[in-house]
Amino acid sequence: MAQHDFFGHMWWHGRLRGHGYRITVPRQVILDVLHSREGHLSAEDIYIEVRKEYPQIGLTTVYRTLELLVRMGIVFKFDFGDGRSRYELSEGPEGFRHHHHLVCSVCGRVIDYSEYLDSEQQLLDKTEAGLSEKYGFKITNHLIRFYGLCDRCQSGE
Amino acid sequence: MAQHDFFGHMWWHGRLRGHGYRITVPRQVILDVLHSREGHLSAEDIYIEVRKEYPQIGLTTVYRTLELLVRMGIVFKFDFGDGRSRYELSEGPEGFRHHHHLVCSVCGRVIDYSEYLDSEQQLLDKTEAGLSEKYGFKITNHLIRFYGLCDRCQSGE
DNA sequence: ACCGATTTGAAAATGATTTTCATTTTCAAT
DNA sequence: ATTGAAAATGAAAATCATTTTCAAATCGGT
User: Fold this and answer.
1) How open is the CA angle B37-B39-B43, to the nearest 5 degrees?
2) Which of A34, A63, B29, B47 registers the highest number of CB atoms within 10 A of its CB?
3) According to the CATH classification, is domain B1-94 in 3.20.20.70?
4) Is B37 helix (H, G, I), strand (E, B) or coil?
5) What is the pLDDT of residue B84?
6) What's residue B5's pLDDT?
7) pLDDT tens digit sequence for A45-71
8) Contacts of B82 in chain A (CB under 8 A)
């Protein structure tokens, strides 16, 4: 099991090496944390978590590594408007499920959902095709987000 | 014409007054700028523009007014990942056309489009209904964005 | 084990946004 | 029109996430 996890997490080695980047301890620990803790993690969340395994790490390295991973498409960077960016693995070989977001305008709560992706997909495909042609854009990704009031915040308003 | 514009821009008076906010010169000038310059304006863009009409304004007031307008739904706040927020009128009575974005991952260029909104609307309606029910969310707004490489940036990659 | 290039980490710098607080402005009541 | 309390403003300082700097440590091909 630990063995499986170990090799299961190694898939990104090739990606990095292939681009001439080195496999370093800080990078490994950061990737481990991203794998172990799903959700929308801030750079500091990750920093705190990584320190448990590798106390000498610097916040700088966390930021640099995240930037690298975002650039390689391994990690997504989100902004939910609370002043700090959030990071999350885009997908592993086992495939983290792509999802969209519901954001509460009052309390800032973010809910992930993935159950309407199939019906959304048809539209996305059609729209992407049209946009690609019209604007010469090569679309690689998308972001869909609904804003509103979450159940908890509706009573008070 | 100036007369028409004048009254045409006054629609938000009621909105503010209705919430107990006062109509002040800085707020009027900021709204004027937002009306005159479509696009994705940063707080500083707006500050610079406002200063031409009202040089004594402070950047602080611009931020505060924008926050107020966002809270009232008069202005949208976007984050395209370049470190500064962008603001834009959501709609006037004459109705600025709602649009979605194409964002180039390489150069950061942002293209507005609105020609697929109709076909997107069906999906949005269906999804919103489902999400509202399942999560008890009262959806008021949405954000759709495609990321990719713009035509200029594809040749070099 | 060695070496050059990459990566790291601590500290300082940056820069957008927010807070503070004394002064000015708005507007309902007079 | 005048007044006065409450709201809004603006200058300066503070905040705080992120980036830059640079000397020391690490990586990986030899």
Assistant:
1) 80
2) A34
3) no
4) coil
5) 96
6) 44
7) 999 999 999 999 999 999 999 999 999
8) none
Q: From the list B145, B147, B151, which residue is nearest A140 (CB)?
A: B147
Q: Which stretches of chain B score pLDDT less than 70?
A: 1-9, 92-96, 156-157
Domains A1-92 and A97-157 share a fold: no
Q: Does domain A97-157 have CATH number 3.30.1490.190?
A: yes
What are the residue ranges spanned by the domains of chain B? 1-94, 97-157
DSSP annotation of A147 reads E
Q: How far apart are CA B95 and CA B97, in angstroms?
A: 6
Q: Which of residues 37-56 of B touch A (CB under 8 A)?
A: none
* Chain A residues near residue B105 by CB distance under 8 angstroms: 140-141
Distance from residue B154's CA to nucleotide D25's C1', rounded to whole Å: 38
The alpha helices in chain B, defined as continuous H runs, are 2-8, 11-18, 25-36, 43-53, 59-71, 117-135, 151-154
| Cβ–Cβ below 8 Å for A122 and B123 | yes
What are the tens digits of pLDDT across the range A110-150? Answer: 999 988 777 778 888 888 999 999 999 999 989 999 999 99
Q: Chain A contact for B4, CB < 8 A?
A: no
Assigned fold of A1-92: Arc Repressor Mutant, subunit A (1.10.10)
| Interchain pair B148, A130: CB under 8 A | no
pLDDT in tens, B56-100: 999 999 999 999 999 999 999 999 999 999 999 987 555 567 889
Query: CA-to-CA distance for B148 and B145, rounded, in angstroms?
Result: 10
